[in-house]
Amino acid sequence: MTRGKQKIEAQRRNAERNQKPKGSQLEARAVALKASCPICKVQLANEKQMGDHYASKHPKEKVPSEPS
Question: What's the chief localization of this chain (predicted)?
Fold first, then answer.
Protein backbone atom coordinates (compact mmCIF):
# COMPACT_ATOMS: atom_id res chain seq x y z
CA MET A 1 0.00 0.00 0.00
CA THR A 2 1.35 3.42 -0.93
CA ARG A 3 1.21 6.59 1.08
CA GLY A 4 1.48 10.31 0.58
CA LYS A 5 3.31 11.46 -2.50
CA GLN A 6 3.47 7.98 -4.07
CA LYS A 7 -0.31 7.66 -3.85
CA ILE A 8 -0.88 11.07 -5.45
CA GLU A 9 1.58 10.32 -8.26
CA ALA A 10 -0.02 6.93 -8.90
CA GLN A 11 -3.48 8.52 -9.09
CA ARG A 12 -2.19 11.17 -11.52
CA ARG A 13 -0.56 8.55 -13.77
CA ASN A 14 -3.73 6.43 -13.77
CA ALA A 15 -5.87 9.46 -14.63
CA GLU A 16 -3.59 10.30 -17.59
CA ARG A 17 -3.61 6.69 -18.76
CA ASN A 18 -7.40 6.41 -18.59
CA GLN A 19 -8.06 9.73 -20.31
CA LYS A 20 -9.81 9.41 -23.67
CA PRO A 21 -7.81 10.38 -26.76
CA LYS A 22 -8.50 13.80 -28.22
CA GLY A 23 -10.28 14.09 -31.56
CA SER A 24 -12.47 11.48 -33.13
CA GLN A 25 -12.17 8.91 -35.85
CA LEU A 26 -15.17 10.44 -37.61
CA GLU A 27 -13.33 13.74 -38.05
CA ALA A 28 -10.27 11.97 -39.45
CA ARG A 29 -12.48 9.92 -41.76
CA ALA A 30 -14.22 13.02 -43.12
CA VAL A 31 -10.86 14.59 -43.95
CA ALA A 32 -9.60 11.48 -45.74
CA LEU A 33 -12.71 10.82 -47.85
CA LYS A 34 -12.63 13.30 -50.71
CA ALA A 35 -14.63 11.67 -53.53
CA SER A 36 -18.13 10.26 -53.55
CA CYS A 37 -20.06 8.11 -55.97
CA PRO A 38 -22.84 10.17 -57.61
CA ILE A 39 -25.03 7.07 -57.97
CA CYS A 40 -25.01 5.56 -54.47
CA LYS A 41 -23.35 8.40 -52.47
CA VAL A 42 -20.58 6.18 -51.07
CA GLN A 43 -17.54 8.21 -50.03
CA LEU A 44 -14.18 7.13 -51.44
CA ALA A 45 -10.63 8.31 -50.83
CA ASN A 46 -9.17 8.45 -54.35
CA GLU A 47 -9.60 7.76 -58.07
CA LYS A 48 -8.36 4.18 -57.84
CA GLN A 49 -11.03 3.33 -55.30
CA MET A 50 -13.61 5.05 -57.51
CA GLY A 51 -12.57 2.82 -60.44
CA ASP A 52 -12.72 -0.31 -58.28
CA HIS A 53 -16.10 0.74 -56.89
CA TYR A 54 -17.58 1.26 -60.36
CA ALA A 55 -16.15 -2.06 -61.57
CA SER A 56 -17.77 -3.99 -58.73
CA LYS A 57 -20.97 -2.05 -57.93
CA HIS A 58 -21.87 -0.32 -61.22
CA PRO A 59 -20.34 -2.45 -64.01
CA LYS A 60 -22.62 -1.05 -66.74
CA GLU A 61 -21.83 2.57 -65.89
CA LYS A 62 -18.80 4.57 -67.01
CA VAL A 63 -16.43 5.96 -64.36
CA PRO A 64 -16.84 9.76 -64.17
CA SER A 65 -13.82 11.77 -65.29
CA GLU A 66 -13.60 13.84 -62.10
CA PRO A 67 -14.79 12.92 -58.60
CA SER A 68 -17.94 14.55 -57.32
Answer: cytoplasm
